[in-house]
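Quick start: read one record
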Amino acid sequence: ASTPAAHRVLGRLADVGLGYLSLGQPLTTLSGGERQRLKLATHMADKGGVYVLDEPTAGLHLADVEQLLGLLDRLVDSGKSVIVVEHHQAVMAHADWIIDLGPGAGHDGGLVVFEGTPADLIAARSTVTGEHLAAYVGS
């Protein structure tokens, strides 16, 4: 018997890099990043136009980060807006637009210290994030 609904759900899990999960696996065994990607997979077919993700790469292998970036690209290409709070340099380098908060972390932050493209952030090297991103991309 054909099970297209199950196939779609399992395909979405694979799209967000969660193809390794077991059926019946308790949510308590998942990392925060895995739980976010699971939620993303369940909402990918919804009509909503904005996705907000907080550190979705947590616990992901680099190959899975690339797969997640491809998924985010497909969401954007389909007309969705994707906002990602992230420290992973591959995600920052891949972004269309970066809003860098600082100048430091925690109580030393909270101000917009840069807004623009990743290339502009790298060229300016005016923030800690810009310095780290420049080193990451080898500029």
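The domain at 4-137 is CATH 3.40.50.300 (Rossmann fold).
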